[in-house]
């Protein structure tokens, strides 16, 4: 099952998921600060976390290491995907291949 959640609908429990995808624009070199609120209290023990960013030059920035810090217990895939925001609409093939 795949569901998209956003900060409007805060997650309380991720126990039903094996893999969690964290997607964010890069703001000031990392994920959007709102994500901190969503992620910090979740239990990621045993979960795989994969990271996607949109950016305008920084790639993933420090998102991987920041996600490792905030997602306690997660196995964070080092192979994140960085998509240039202005090219997002043309990036379907790259995203499918990464998935
Ligand atoms: C406040 C702010 C900070 C940003 N900081 C960065 C940055 O450090 N590196 C970068 O590559 N892009 C940065 N950007 C560009 C965003 O990553 C880009 O606009 C975004 O990926 C596209 O998604 P959006 O249209 O939802 O903003 C920043 C944008 C904003 C608004």
Would you kindly provide a written description of the structure presented here, covering whatever features stand out?
- The protein has a domain at 19-85: 3-Layer(aba) Sandwich (Rossmann fold), CATH 3.40.50.360.
- Helices cover 21% and strands 25% of the residues.
- It has helices at residues 34-39, 63-70, 92-98, and strands at 19-27, 30-31, 48-55, 75-76, 81-84.
- Strands 1, 2, 3, 4 and 5 form a 5-stranded mixed β-sheet that branches.
- It starts with 18 loop residues before the first strand and ends with a helix.
- The relative contact order is 0.20.
- Flavin mononucleotide (FMN) binds at residues 25-29, 54-58, 85.
Short description:
This protein is 21% helix and 25% strand.
What binds here, in terms of ligands, is: flavin mononucleotide
CATH superfamily of the domain at 19-85, please?
A: Flavodoxin domain
CATH class of the domain at 19-85: Alpha Beta
What is the H/E string? EEHEHEEH
Radius of gyration: 13 Å
Helix-strand category: alpha/beta
Q: How many β-strands, per DSSP?
A: 5
Low-confidence stretches: none
């Amino acid at each position: 099952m795949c569901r998209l959640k956003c900060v409007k609908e805060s997650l309380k429990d991720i126990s039903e998921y094996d893999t969690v995808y964290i997607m964010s624009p890069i703001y000031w070199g990392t994920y959007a600060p709102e994500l901190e609120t969503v992620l910090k209290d979740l239990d990621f023990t045993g979960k795989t976390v994969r990271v996607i960013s949109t950016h305008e030059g920084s790639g993933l920035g420090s998102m991987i290491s920041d996600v490792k810090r905030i997602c306690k217990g997660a196995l964070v895939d080092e192979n994140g995907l960085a998509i240039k925001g202005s090219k997002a609409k043309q990036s379907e093939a790259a995203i499918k291949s990464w998935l």
